[in-house]
Design a protein that fits this description.
The complex is a heterodimer of chains A (about 475) and B (about 500). Chain A is of the alpha+beta class. Helix content of chain A is about 40%, strand content about 20%. Chain B is globular, with a radius of gyration of 24 Å. Classes of the chains: A alpha+beta (about 475), B alpha+beta (about 500).
C-alpha cells in the first residue's frame, strides 16, 4: 500500500532485490466501477482470504490469475525490538542462518533451486519483523511451500554456518555503516531520540554483540520466535485457493505450536527537552542536518495526518522545504523525511544535506520556522490533495507485482493485525483534513519533543601527498 | 512504498546521486556454481544437494507479448503496450544521438545538463509551475543523459485517469524547454555540492577510476562533470544541443499501461506534430580497445575499513555474436548470489557481504567486471580468490550440470520477466535500437540453450584475461598498497581523483 512502509532492511543474501524486481510479475487487481473523471479514485480492490491453521499459523491468500507466477511471503513476528541487551543485531544475524539449509534442503540448495527456476528470493529484517520470500512460476508452488515449511520445522543450526554468516553480517555492517558517509548518523538518531531499548539500537547491531552471539542463542531464538503461531504466510498470485490451502495444511500443519513469545514493552517515556548531538564523520564531505520528533505508531489517525504533513513539507519538487531551501535559498542539496511506519512510537524525520560552507544552524532555524508556520497558518486544501493523489500512485506502484502485494499485506497483517488495510488505505488518506494536519503539527512537532543531530565532515589526516 | 528509512535514504540519494546509481551492478537471478575450498586445487561446489524438494520438470513456456508499433509522419517511433490491470501509465522516450557519448569533448556535461534542464522552464511554464503541475497530478518526471550513453532517456508516469493532463506537460518540457539562465545557475550550484559529496563514497570512487582505466580516451571514461567544465556550460549551448539532437526520427516513444491504442495515437499526433524531423542519423561509435597490460589503480581513501575491488577489461558490444555465451559465462561466474564468486568469497571464505560479476554490452564494446567490498585485512586473500575464479572459467570447461542449470535459469527468469510490461518494453526498445530482427526475443531462449561448455570457455579465454585486466582498489592506502603491488604496477590516486607522484607515494604519511 502506498504508505505501508517496507522498513529498513538488511537483505540476507546479497540483496537480490534487483533480481526480484526484474522478475516482478503481474498485478492483479480488479478495477471496479468505471473510471471517474479527474481526482476521484478508480478503486483498486485486492481480494483477500484468511485462515488460521490449528497450530496457529495464519495464512492469507490473494489470488491473481493474470500471469503464471506466484510469490510466497513468510513474516515472523520478531525484529530487532525483541533483542536482549548484549545481543543487538541478532534478529538479522538469525535471518542469515535461515538460508544455510534445513533438514531436507541443503546449504545453498534453496537459492540454487529458486534461481534455476527463474525465480527470486531474499529476506529482510527490520525493527518489528523478519520476512522471507520467493517469487516462482506457478507450477512450482510445491517447491516454495516445501522449502519454507522445512526451515520453519527443522533449521540446520551449526557452528560453521554461524561463524560464516557472522562474517557476512559484519561485512554488511562495514559496507552499509562503517565504510559509508553518514553511515553512523542513522544509528545516532535512534540512539539519542529513544529511551526504550527496543528502538534505541540499530537493526544491524554492534560488532561486539555480533561477536558474542553463540550457537545456543541461535537455537533459543529459533525455538522462541520461529514457531508457526508467531508467523504469517502470505500467498499471492496464480493458484487455486482450496488446493493451495490443502497443500499448506499438509506442509505446515504438523509443525508444533510453541509457547507465546514474551511481549516487548514498547512504551516510550514522554520527552521533556530538546536533545542534540554533533558527530564527526571522516568519510563525509558535506555537513548533514537531521531533525527527529517522537510521534505515534503507524496506522493510527494521527500518524496518517503526520504522513500527509511530511509530504507537504518534503515530497516532490513542489514541496515547501524543497522550494525554499534547495531552490530559492540554495542552502540545502536535498531534503526528505516523514514519519516511519513502525509498530511502536515512530520518529518523524527531516533530513537535509548542506551546501558547502552553509551553516546548519541557519537551515535548522529555517526549517523550524516553516514548522511554526504550519502550526499557525495550517496547510492548504490544494497541498492536501496533492499528497492524496501521490499516495494513490505510490500505493498502485507498490502493489504492481505479486511480491509487492505480498509485502503490503504481510506488513499490515503482522504489525497491525489488519491484512485488509491494503484495501482501506486510500480512503483513510482521503479523510485527512487540513485541520488534522495543523493539529498534529501542534501536538508532536514541539521543542521538547525534538532531537537534532548534526553530522560534520572530519578532515582526514592528509593522506598520500595531496588531498 | 515509503519508509522512514527510505525517506532518509532518498535524502542521501539527493546528496549523492551519481554515487548511488553506480552502486554495484546486481544482475537478475542466476545459477549455481562451485566455490573455492582451497586456492590450490580446483574448488568444488559449495552447494549441498539433498534433492528432496519437489520440482516440476515442466519449464514455463514464454509467450512474448509484443507492443504495437507505429511511425508518426515526423518519424517518431511509437510503441504501445496496453495493460489495464492498474489505472497507471508509464512513458519512456529514448532519444538516440543526444547522449553524452555524442557530445563534443570541448563541452563535457552538455548532454547531461540539457536533459536535467528540461523541467526547469519552458516557453509557457516556469520551473516552479512545472513542479507544481507534475505534483498536483500525481505524476513523476525524470530525464538524464550520461557520459556513456548514446541516448537521452526521458521517463514519466502517472495515473491513467488524468493522462491527458500530464502527458501534454511532458510534451511541453520535451519540445519547448527555455533553459533559463537563473535556473541553469541554480542547477550548477546544486551539482557542485553533489560533485563534492560523492567523493566520500567508495563505490563511486571505484567505478570512476575503473571507467578511466578501461576506457582510456573513449568518452565513456568520464562519469561526472567537474567544477571547471560545468561553469563553461551556457544556456545557448544547451538550447542548440536540444535543437540539433532531440529529433523525432531518432526517438522511440514507449507507452505501457492503461491506455487505448486507437484513441491514443491521434492524441500523440496532436501533441508531437510540431516536432520537425531532419536528416540527421546517429552512428554507432567505434569501440574502445581492451587494455593490453595489467595495471593496478589504488585510490587512497583514509579511514576506510573495507577495500572496494573492481577489475575487468573491455569485452563485447550488444550486437556481438558472443553475447549469448557471455551471458551464460557471467551467470556461472558472478551473475548472482548462487554463482561462483559469491559462493567462494562470501559463503566459503567469509570475506565480504557480496561478490559479483557483470558485463556492459551496449552500442560499443563495454567492459566485463568482477567486484566486491572486503574488509581491509583480507584484501590479499580476496584478490587470490578472484584470480582463482577468473582463471578457472578460462582454464576449465564448465561441468555439464552447472552449465545446464545456468542456461535454464536465464531462460526461466526471462520467461518470468515477461509478466512485467516494463520488461517487455525494454526488450522491444533494445530490438529497435540495435536493429535486431522481429523474432529476436522469440529466438532468445533457444540461443541461450544452444550455448555449449566450449563456447563458455572460448569467450572466457577471449575476454576474461587476468593478465591484461585493470584492477581498481579503493581503501586505506597505508594498509593495502604493498598488497596491491603484488598484482601489478600501482598508480596511486587521491579521493579527489588526482594522481600522486611516485616519489611521495607513501600513503597516509604526512
Amino acid at each position: 500500500m502506498g504508505r505501508m512502509k517496507l522498513a529498513v532492511v538488511f537483505c540476507m543474501s546479497a540483496c537480490l532485490l534487483a533480481g526480484v524486481l526484474a522478475i516482478q510479475p503481474r498485478p492483479v487487481v480488479a478495477a471496479d466501477g468505471g473510471r471517474p473523471p479527474a481526482a476521484t479514485a478508480a478503486t483498486v480492490h485486492i481480494p483477500i482470504q484468511q485462515t488460521t491453521l490449528k497450530n496457529g499459523l495464519k495464512v492469507i491468500f490473494s489470488e491473481d490469475h493474470t500471469a503464471p507466477t506466484y510469490s510466497i511471503v513468510v513474516e515472523y513476528n520478531v525484529g530487532s525490538r525483541n533483542e536482549r541487551p548484549g545481543r543487538t543485531g541478532f534478529a538479522h544475524l538469525f535471518e542469515h542462518m535461515m538460508f544455510q539449509g534445513s533438514e531436507n534442503v541443503g546449504k545453498g540448495e534453496m537459492n540454487m533451486l529458486v534461481t534455476n527456476n527463474g525465480g527470486g528470493m531474499n529476506g529482510t529484517t527490520d525493527k518489528d519483523r523478519t520476512v522471507y520470500y520467493e517469487t516462482l512460476p506457478s507450477n512450482q508452488l510445491d517447491l516454495g511451500l516445501f522449502m519454507e515449511s522445512d526451515r520453519m520445522r527443522a533449521l540446520a543450526i551449526t557452528q560453521p554456518n554461524l561463524d560464516n554468516q557472522r562474517n557476512a553480517v559484519q561485512e554488511e555492517r562495514r559496507l552499509r555503516v562503517d565504510n559509508q558517509p553518514y553511515g553512523k548518523t542513522f544509528e545516532k538518531i535512534d540512539e539519542v531520540a529513544y529511551d526504550n531499548p527496543a528502538y534505541k539500537h540499530s537493526v544491524i547491531g554492534s560488532m561486539a554483540d555480533l561477536n558474542a552471539a553463540s550457537l545456543e542463542d541461535v537455537i533459543g531464538f529459533f525455538k522462541t520466535y520461529y514457531a508457526p503461531n508467531n508467523a504469517i504466510l502470505i500467498l499471492v498470485g496464480d493458484f487455486n485457493h482450496d488446493e493451495a490451502l490443502a497443500k499448506i495444511t499438509k506442509s505446515f500443519g504438523d509443525i508444533p505450536r510453541g509457547p507465546a513469545p514474551p511481549a516487548v514493552d514498547m512504551t516510550e517515556p514522554a520527552q521533556t527537552g530538546e536533545r542534540t548531538a554533533t558527530i564527526e564523520d571522516p568519510l563525509a564531505r558535506l555537513t548533514r542536518l537531521d531533525i527527529a520528533y517522537k510521534v505515534v505508531p503507524g496506522n493510527t489517525p494521527d500518524w496518517y495526518a503526520l504522513d500527509v504533513l511530511g509530504d507537504i513539507l518534503m515530497s516532490g519538487q513542489s514541496s515547501r522545504l524543497f522550494q525554499e531551501f534547495v531552490k530559492d535559498k540554495q542552502i540545502a542539496t536535498g531534503v526528505g523525511g516523514g514519519p516511519g511506519q513502525d509498530r511502536g512510537p515512530a520518529l518523524f524525520g527531516i533530513g537535509a544535506g548542506l551546501r558547502p560552507g552553509k551553516d546548519p544552524a541557519e537551515l535548522e532555524k529555517g526549517i523550524l520556522a516553516d514548522i511554526e508556520k504550519v502550526k499557525t497558518d495550517g496547510v492548504t486544501q490544494a497541498e492536501l490533495e496533492k499528497t492524496i493523489i501521490r499516495d494513490r500512485v505510490n500505493h498502485y506502484s507498490g502493489i504492481q507485482g505479486t511480491l509487492g502485494r505480498g509485502f503490503a499485506i504481510g506488513e499490515a497483517a503482522v504489525n497491525f493485525n489488519d491484512p485488509e488495510l491494503i484495501n482501506k488505505v486510500d480512503d483513510i488518506y482521503a479523510k485527512v483534513t487540513p485541520a488534522d494536519v495543523k493539529r498534529v503539527a501542534q501536538k508532536y512537532l514541539t521543542d521538547n519533543n525534538r532531537t537534532v543531530i548534526i553530522t560534520v565532515p572530519k578532515p582526514a589526516a592528509p593522506a598520500a601527498g595531496n588531498q | 512504498m515509503k519508509t522512514k528509512s527510505d525517506k532518509f535514504s532518498s535524502v542521501l540519494r539527493v546528496l549523492l546521486p551519481a554515487a548511488l546509481t553506480v552502486a554495484i551492478a546486481i544482475p537478475a537471478s542466476a545459477q549455481m556454481g562451485g566455490g573455492g575450498q582451497s586456492t590450490q586445487s580446483p574448488p568444488l561446489s559449495q552447494v549441498e544437494r539433498k534433492n528432496r524438494a519437489p520440482i516440476s520438470k515442466e519449464v514455463l513456456q514464454p509467450k512474448l507479448p509484443k507492443p504495437s508499433e507505429t511511425t508518426l509522419p515526423n518519424g517518431l517511433t511509437v510503441l504501445i503496450l496496453e495493460d489495464h490491470r492498474l489505472p497507471m501509465v508509464n512513458v519512456q522516450f529514448q532519444i538516440n544521438g543526444s547522449g553524452g557519448l555524442c557530445e563534443p569533448s570541448s563541452t563535457p556535461g552538455l548532454a547531461g545538463f540539457t536533459a536535467q534542464m528540461l523541467r526547469e522552464g519552458t516557453a509557457t511554464r516556469t520551473s516552479k509551475q512545472i513542479a507544481e503541475d507534475v505534483d498536483r497530478l500525481g505524476a513523476s518526471f525524470g530525464a538524464n543523459a550520461t557520459f556513456s550513453a548514446m541516448n537521452t532517456g526521458v521517463n514519466a508516469s502517472g495515473l491513467s485517469e488524468n493522462f491527458d493532463q500530464w502527458m501534454p506537460i511532458v510534451a511541453d518540457v520535451l519540445l519547448h524547454p527555455s533553459f533559463p539562465a537563473s535556473e541553469l545557475d541554480n542547477l550548477k550550484q546544486r551539482t557542485k555540492a553533489s560533485l563534492q559529496a560523492q567523493r566520500g563514497n567508495a563505490a563511486f570512487l571505484a567505478l570512476e577510476r575503473f571507467n578511466k582505466a578501461v576506457y582510456g580516451n573513449f568518452p565513456a571514461a568520464t562519469m561526472t562533470t567537474t567544477v571547471e567544465t560545468l561553469d563553461a556550460l551556457k544556456p545557448e549551448a544547451l538550447a542548440q544541443w536540444h535543437h540539433d539532437h532531440y529529433l523525432p526520427q531518432n526517438t522511440i516513444l514507449a507507452i505501457s499501461g492503461d491506455v487505448q491504442t486507437a484513441a491514443l495515437l491521434p492524441k500523440l499526433r496532436q501533441w508531437f506534430d510540431e516536432w520537425q524531423k531532419t536528416d540527421v542519423k546517429p552512428v554507432f561509435p567505434a569501440s574502445p580497445s581492451p587494455a593490453t597490460a595489467r595495471k593496478v589503480f589504488l585510490v587512497d581513501r583514509p579511514n576506510s575499513v573495507q577495500t572496494n575491488l573492481y577489475m575487468g577489461n573491455i569485452a563485447i558490444d550488444r550486437r556481438s555474436p558472443d553475447y549469448y555465451a557471455m551471458n551464460v559465462l557471467n551467470r556461472i561466474l558472478g551473475g548472482s548470489a548462487a554463482a561462483r564468486l559469491f559462493m567462494n568469497l562470501r559463503e566459503n571464505k567469509g570475506y565480504t557481504y557480496g561478490a559479483y560479476s557483470s558485463f556492459a554490452a551496449v552500442s560499443y564494446a563495454g567492459p566485463w567486471n568482477a567486484n566486491s567490498e572486503v574488509r581491509t585485512d583480507v584484501t590479499d586473500g580476496a584478490m587470490t580468490e578472484f584470480l582463482v575464479e577468473l582463471n578457472r572459467i578460462r582454464d576449465e570447461k564448465v561441468p555439464t550440470t552447472e552449465l545446464e542449470e545456468a542456461k535454464r535459469s536465464i531462460v526461466a527468469s526471462f520467461a518470468l520477466s515477461l509478466e512485467s510490461p516494463q520488461s517487455i518494453m525494454s526488450y522491444a526498445i533494445t530490438r529497435k535500437i540495435f536493429g535486431f530482427p522481429e523474432d529476436y526475443w522469440d529466438k532468445y531462449p533457444a540461443q541461450i540453450m544452444a550455448v555449449t561448455a566450449d563456447d563458455v570457455q572460448r569467450v572466457g579465454q577471449k575476454y576474461i584475461n587476468p593478465a591484461t585486466m585493470q584492477i581498481v582498489a579503493v581503501g586505506d592506502g597505508t594498509k593495502i598498497k604493498s598488497v596491491m603491488e603484488k598484482y601489478g604496477p600501482v598508480e596511486l590516486y587521491t579521493t579527489e581523483g588526482k594522481p600522486v607522484a611516485a616519489k611521495s607515494a607513501t600513503p597516509g604519511s604526512n
